[in-house]
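Pilot study result, target chain (245 residues):
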Amino acid sequence: MTARAAWTPQYRSIELALRARLPTMHPGDRLPSDTDLCREFGVSRMTARNAMQRLAEDGLVQRIPGLGSFVVQAPSHRYADRLTAFSHEMKRLGRVPSSRLLAREIRPATNAEAGALQLKPAEPVVVIRRVRMADGVPIATETAVLARRTADVVMDIDLETGSLHEALARAGLQLRRGNATITAEAATAEDARLLGVSETDALLVERRVIADVHGRPVETTESRYPGKRYALDVRFDVEDGRAPA
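Predicted structure:
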C-alpha cells in the first residue's frame, strides 16, 4: 500500500513560500498584500492573512495597517522555554546558518564537566568549540562537552555546515530535556576577537545540560552571545495575585 502524503494546510504552504523569499529581500522591502496572495495562491483573504501573521509573530515581518507588510531585520532570538538546534532556529528565521570550527578533541573531563555529565573524574569527553553564525555574522561562541559515547558520531561529522543534534539523532541518541542558567558577563579579549565586539561589551551567557530520553546527561554547553545580536524571548503565565484563603 502506498503511504499517503502528509496534508499541508493552505496557509502553511503560503507561509513556507514566503519564508523562502525572505533571504532574497532586504529590510524595508514590501511583501505582497493579502489581495496579492489571494490572487497568487487562489485562497481566501483569511488564509492569506493567517500566513502573513505567522511571519509577523516570528518577528520577520512588520504589518502596518493601511500600508502593508514589510521585511524587517531578521532577529536571532529563541524562546527560553525550548531549545531548538541553532541551524533550525536560524533557518526558521529566514537566515543562513553556518559555523567556524575552532577545536574538536577528546580529553579528560574537568571536575565540573564530570559532575555535570555524571561521569567519573577525568573520564574522557568530547569537546567542540565553534563560532556560530547567521548570514556570516557571528552570533555566539559555543563550547560543547559531550559524553564519550558520542565520540563515534561527533568526531566524524561536518560541524561547520551540519547540525550536531541532527547527527546525534540519526545515531539514535535522542536528546529530550535540559536545564540552563543564563547570566550577563562582560566580553573577554577572546570574545572580542571571535565575535567582533569590544572588550567589556555585554554578553548573554547560557550554560546548559541536556539529557537523553533515559535521563542520562549527554551534553553540557556554554554559549556566549553578544547582547546586541541575540535575546531570549519568554512566554509566561501571570501568577494569581489574590491573597491566599
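One observation from the pilot: Helices lie at 10-21, 34-41, 45-57, 86-92, 111-117, 151-154, 164-170, 189-195. A full batch analysis is planned for the follow-on phase.
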